[in-house]
Amino acid sequence: MSSTDGEARVVQIYPRLSQDTATYCPLQVGAVDTARTVIHNAVVTLGLDATKTYSLLEVRRAGREETLLEAGERPLERVMLWPPRAHRWHPQCNGYYFILQDQHANNGGHQAENSSLCHDDLCNLQTVTEENILEALRQRFNRLKIYTYARNILIAINPNKFLPLYYNPNYVKMYEKQPLGKLSPHIFAVADSALRAMLSRQVNQCIVLSGESGSGKTESCSYLVHCLTSLSQKTYSGGLERTVLGAGPVLEAFGNAKTAENNNSSRFGKFIQLNYLESGVIRGAVIEKYLLEKFRLVSRDPGERSYHVFYYLLVGASKEEQQQFHLLKPQDYVYLQQEDLHLDDVEKLGREYKRLHQAMEMVGFLASTKNHIFSILSAILLLGNVTYTQSEDAEVLDVGPAEVLSTLSNLLKVKTEVLVKTLVKRRVVTAGAAVLSQYTLQEATAVRDSMARSLYGALFDWIILHINHAMFNRRDMEESVPCLSIGVLDMFGFENLRTNSFEQLCINFSIEKVQCYINRHVFHLEQEDYVSEGIAWRTINYTDNSRCIRLISEESTGLFALLDEESNLPQATDETLLDKLKQRHGDNPSVLPSSHREPTFIIQHFAGRVKYHIKGFRQKNTEHIRPEVISLLRSSERAFVHHLVASSPEALFRWGVLRATIRILTVFKKLGRQRAESISGRRGSRKAFFEKRGSTAVGRLSSNSLPLDFSFDRSDEHPLDVFEDIFVNYEKRKKNRGSRRKQLIPKNLVDLHSLRHIVGLTAHDRTSKFIFHPHRSTKPPTVSTQFQTSLGKLMESMEKAEPFFIFCLRSNNGKDLHFDAELVLQQIKYQGLLQMVRLKKSGFSAKYTFKEFVEQFRMLLPKGATMRPEHITELFEKMKLDRTNYQIGKTKVFLKEKARQLLQDKYNKEVMHHIIVLQRWFRASLLRMHFLQKKDATMLIQRNWREFYENQNRAATVIQTAWKSSLKKSKHQREKESNGSENRLGRDSLTKKELTRQQKVELSPNRTQQRSGSREKREGRGSPPPLTRPLSLPLDPKAKEEPCPGPPKASSLQRYTDVEAFKEKAEKWRERLSEGERTDESSPEVQRRHGVRKNEFQHKGKSVSVDELSKVSSSGSDSSPSTNEIPAETDGSSFSCQSRSCDEDLGPHGSNNSQLTTPEKIWFLSKFLRKRPKYPPVNDCPSSKAALTLANYTPQPYNRPTQETERVGRNPTIRISRATRALQCNTSLEREITDPNELRKLDEFLGNQVNELQSRMKKLSPTESVFLTATMQFRETIKGMYSVQKPQIGYKDLMKGYENQVNTLAGSKDKKTEVSLVVNLFQSMLDGFIRGELKRVESEPVKATKATKNRRKKAACPNSPLDHLFSTYQVNIMQSCDLCGSYIWGMEKAYMCSACKLICHKNCLNKIITDCSTRCDRKDDSVPGSLHFGVQVCVLTSKANPVPKVVELLLIHVELNGLYTEGIYRKSGSTCRARELHQILETDPDGPCLDNYSIHTVTGLVKRWLRELPDPLMTFSLYSDFLHAVELPEKAERIRAIYQKVEELPPANYSTLERLIFHLVRVAKEEEHNKMSPSSLAIVFAPCVLRSPDVNDPFLGMKDVSKTTMCVEILISEQFRRYNEKMQNIQQLEYAEALAVSQLKLRRQNTLIEKPSELDVADHSDELERTLIDRIKSIKQEKVDLACGLPDLEREQSDNDNLDSLSLMSSDSLGSLDSEGQ
């Protein structure tokens, strides 16, 4: 089963086959399973022949017709359209089921439909005719495929029914960034193409919806806005998207109504303009409305209704609302009365009322504002119930009923007398006075209806204004900010009703303008371009409707001009208007003759003939709010009513600000007086209370009157607040970060500038509001004039945009799922679809000027090619393109889509080839440069070695010459020569042999000693010892000049003249070797220097030195290394180098430097070695560095001091030394930390030692400062390891990291001598802690370690099963649950996985049985499981190890050993060593010893592991989302958007990225030493973790380098800031803990109970102690939680998130909100 999204529903498949099979085959079918998958599973389950071809048919009850399912169709979508009873179980008797049959079978005449004409694109039809187009649309409609392409034009047929799963969020994800035509046709594909075209070409786009009334334009517009906002919301979820989505239901409720053709007909035109930043993020929106049909409010045709909002309010309002708004039943309102008023959809109307409430909240309406709006609606309905009666006096009208007038006055907050006066009397203002006159009965009724219409129109205008301000972005007022836009035009549908009046003329005129715009862009401009370029083209004719447009809108003779002219004449009537029209345009072909019996005229529109009734044209054209009504409403006590009729909203706003200021000042003064009175009244009682409170011991403890004093000698007088204020402060900050408070004040507050801007955008269609003025010279514009002006402005803005067209077709005259071929064919004809398909099939989709073509495809052209058509033609011929797919004009190249795609593919391949060539040459240059560098280095080494070899030979010659001279000059030798020549010959031969060995003394000194000793034993006689006296001669020639105490100096050559004395010294040397002789550091000069250091420590008096802290550290464990294991030294060897055994461990580096003999050789080597870099120590002993300091030692006789001399010169406080380190270097450090609790205990232990040292020392020495600083930094390193679930960290590695920190902190050469002392002291403390831990482990039973909790919050939803990332989702358009299949109505709250876009009810969360298709771990079975490089991250992780083992190993090693290395990630290591380490880590991460490799080699492996991932850490699917997030204008928005996308990563990627970013933060923290800033690290790691998924377009990745780098830099910088903030909080908690611990100790020391009467005090003291202990435990737990959360990548909550989450409230909370507003 391949289902990955949604619930696996059981579907029964009935086989229709020749062989015997089961009755039916039950299969589990998912929401994304296709017919191909279902057929395959059925064949496998039934055991059928897999070589045959099978098909799946759907059977429905209607005629039992069988519909063939194509391979890509989803059967579960068909099941959702069946009746609910057939969803779970569908036997054949119910008439809804699936059939599996052989594709070539013919069963009883039930044939599947012929799919030869069922193409996704009509241009793929072999023959383009109206019949073929109709048949193709019919076949697709029967398969529920309501969308069809004609190249880039979309044709949508209204099914009059919601199709489940067709508009769910996963469809938005499916069509995202897919070329138009790659997937099956869909309206979401058009929205995505428009967005991508806007971003790529940086040009405004416009989507034009065209079709007659009932064709589904309103729903299509909702789908487009939903998709566009979802695409932007995918990048960054902000409040603006919610406002845009909430505006749709509000406008539908107030502007849509039920008509004979359509249940949701839009009775106004709208143009929704979504403004975008250049990155594709919505920054604002504007809604422009055109010509609201207000007359529908008072009269309608039979079978139609008024606006939806009235029925929503009357049916859905609660009892309290009905009483508040004085609501009646729908049948009781005159304006709603009609013969066939049957509200059979009461449940739906109630649901829509709740939906309206939530939508109004989304656009910023407060509860009080909603109450005002509903009060106005109730008043409008009640106006229809006002009746007039003619009194006995014919000149007076009586208005009633009285209760209606009283209710109206209450709703509008006006006086009843003024209301009655307005309804019955006309007021005429002249220059002299105001004249009142009575209305006639007919006029009064018209005034009443006009007042209702005007009031509703003003309310609709105010709602549009408010919504625009809620979607307003203040950057729109700044011309410097670039802005792009996508407009969605949803104009009226073409109307031809029973009675067509002025509104229908305006509606059809707007449709004519839109059709003219379509003809211009589809036919005229396209063919004009072909003809002007001179290419071979056959002109396609189309219907031109410009004549009809001129008839209506021509300036002087047009119908609108005549109407305005007649409206200004007092004596004119509708009949005179009709006569003038026939007189002026009687011979116009667009005006058809009509019957003289009726006052009508007929106009031939492009969509057909329409008969218009002239009655009411003049009145409707001059419809304005009457001055009397404006005066009445301005007298209202409710400010909201003033806003509705304000002629200048800016002036009203200024007055409102002034009134609010005066009221605020008044309230402040009143509250100030009340507070002063209350304070004076309470002052006496408070004083007495505090005196009484401070008289007891508890009162003293709880009093805050004393200042905070942090000394510890008065613990009984201090309250607990001394340390608690720090902790409470931290807790408050933590709660504030996570708190979610309701924001009652709207986010976008109105100011004068924004209000003026919004009013200017919508002023073209606002209702005129003029009051009486005797000297007014200008008249308000007529409705037709306003309408033409607004249409002209609309067309002007649309001409600046690139259009996309969607043609909506009605499927039938009814409202059911049925295809009426005759009706659809009629629409195909008048919309010109046949000509459009022919044009698109024959035309060229891509065109370039010669210059653009050469610039775009220069790499494909030969070198030196110019903008000549010959070169372009040569390229096309070379590529063997079909001549029918391209043409070359005079200045342009025309390509069809197939040729353009081939050209683009060829271009991408050529670019990749050039890139590879450049990379190859660059690598060759690097290799050549490295080779030359190595060659020069080799020659330098060879030259230096030759020089050294020559100097060595010269030194040997000097020694031989001196030796021979000494033998000749010796008297003793001359006497022995005279006594016997035989003995002399023996000695001469021996001397020559010894001289020969002396030449090899440096190469193998130990072997020389052994050989000389063994020769003496064999010969049984004494011989001169070899001159291999280690550490007896200086390495530094300057050391010869230093004075030395002891016997008089003698030449080194004279020492060997006395052979007996020489033998004596040789014997002593052998004895010292056998006893384990010390190294050079025990020489008197070294002792003298260390003695001076001891004296410095002794002169400090009572101040404690750093070595005294070794006692403190040793006291923390049961045994002390300085007292139990190390014997007392008598010669000051506590400051000496390691013993002989340790020297042997050092290898050649440790022995050669200590056994140089001859002065000339020593001088040469010291001069040569001074130029060489210092090698790092070979083993763990830091004393191995002593070999580097031997050059400064002075040669002295090797005498062992006595015990007395040690007692005098030894400092008893310093017990930790290099000797101590040498003896213990490989004992306790071999232990590994495998329990996180041990890390925490070590951190706490070190913190206690540091606190104790700081409390004892007032002034720190340089050594102690280095120790404290290094230890505190080391504690930060340990805290960074808290989050590791299963650590495997050796103490030896920790020790190395500490040594690196000390070396870095020591810095200057003056402090280098303090490094060994600090390291030894820390080693002593560490040894004590380890021994204590070992004993604790041995004594305590083994406890099962608790698994650390998963700190990552999966989503706001409490349940996030199977890797889904659910969050609350506000449904805007009706959708269906992917699990249960039932509907999710608009404005309901559902749950959606932000990764795979699965949507479901909250109750369906427990039904999920499939993994998230996007975030689930996909393991590739073809990849061996033992590999650790180049495989998916999920393969290397588990719940126990969330981070791959190789990554964790490498990062910990770098953090312990490389944070202070300059250019740690900038420089590269040895290629050979890196290849060797890679081969070992590939199969065995535990195999290599990383200490044997340079740190740059290890860091190079980290980058290589990231680069070799098949899918990078920040996955391909989220690549564009991260880039869009970076392009947000505000820094806070960028950070929130990036973290929002990080949360959508798969769990394995998330954990690994979290660990990597934390590591980079640790690196950036040491920028002072390693020179790696966050920006530098981002430059290095951005190509590793965030790579472009489009490998075909190489330029795309190059353009995005700056964005990817910024994205990673933002992550590092933000985590760095959070890291510092958390560390500061930890330090504050540690400070509070130290204060509390000290206070607890002092309290226990000072508590003595001597008398029984003091037991009460003791109990109180015990209670305080328990309080302190509890607080200390709480602080420790807070520290652990903070430290464990240091690497967290969680997104911080913000005000926008809180506001958005509150806007997603359920329907149950609406009542409480309304009551709150009241």
What order do the strands of the largest sheet run in, or round the barrel if closed?
6-7-21-8-17-11-12
Which word captures the global form? globular
Roughly what percent helix?
A: 40-55%
Mean pLDDT value: 75
Q: Helix tally? A: 61
Largest sheet: 7 strands, mixed
Helix-strand makeup class: alpha+beta
**Percentage of β-strand residues:** 5-15%
**Low-confidence spans: pLDDT under 50, at least 5 residues?**
1-6, 106-115, 692-727, 737-747, 989-1057, 1074-1226, 1344-1359, 1417-1425, 1649-1653, 1698-1718
Distance between the termini: 56 Å
**Would you count the extended β strands for me?**
31
Q: Using the CA coordinates, give the radius of gyration.
A: 47 Å
